[in-house]
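A quick aside before the break. I want you to see a complete sequence-to-structure record at least once, exactly as it would be stored in a machine-readable document. Don't worry about memorizing anything.
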Amino acid sequence: MIFEAKTLEEAYQKATKHYNKSISELDIKIIQSPSKGLFGFFSKNAIIEIEDQIEEKEVVLSIDKVVEILKKDVNDLFELSCFNIDEIDVRVYNEDTIMFEITGDDSALLIGKEGYRYNALSTLLFNWVFQKYGYKTRLEISSFLSSQEEMMREYLEPTIEEIRKKGRCKTKPFDGILVHIAVEILRKEFPNKYVAIKKHKDGSQYIIVNEFLSKNG
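That is the input. The structure line, written in tokens, reads:
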């Protein structure tokens, strides 16, 4: 099957969405690389081809079974690393979320400066688990996530008061995992309001809170 988009990344996304598989599970052939052309003319889209694959019927696994599989897989993976960490605890967090908790002498090294390693690892885990099994993930490393959530709750107190008074707000930009923590807190605080992550033109992310639009106008 052929997929075409402005960039290779967008073409890959179309393919992974269509087949419900990760990039590594697809046999991808690049037919045409994207090009901006000259002065806006003769630009080319990215074109990729996915070799025909026999679609296997997905077997829906219980979250407990998925946890059992992931615990073995993720610990086998980290055995190959140079980090001195304890056995990774994988458990059910709620009905649609799986918790990964990493502790040990070198666990803090997996957080990185300003949490950049944490953000990367959290994203990789989510993409892997959600694409393959359909569950969301939550990553805790040496209480990093808990401390970030506590800090964000305190920071959002004035914002929450503003929403209660005005009914809406637009936050300042947040980095990495912080925007996802903030949106979860605000959604729990205001379950009957529209709470969503938006992007500025420069790629920075912020949150808006507003009333749901009425179908009648």
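Two observations worth writing down. The chain has three domains: 2-50, 63-142, 145-210. The first strand starts at residue 2 and ends at 5. We'll return to this after the break.
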